[in-house]
Amino acid sequence: MKLDIINMATFYGCDKKGVELAPKMLIDNDLESILKNCNHKINKIIDIEIEQNFDDKFKENKYIKYFDKIIPSVTALSEQICKSYSENNFPLVLGGDHSISIGSLAGFSNFFKNTGVIWIDAHGDLNTPSTSPSCNAHGMPLACSLGYGDEKFLSLFKNKIDPRNVFLFGVRSLDDGEKDFIIKNEMHIYDTNSFNLLNPELMINTLKKYVSKNKIHNFHLSFDIDVFDPVYVPGTGTPVKNGLYVDEIKSFLDKLLSAINIVSMDFVEFNPLLDKDNQTLNLCLEILEFLFRRINK
Question: Looking at the annotation, which residues are catalytic?
Answer without folding.
Answer: 98, 121, 123, 125, 138, 224, 226, 269
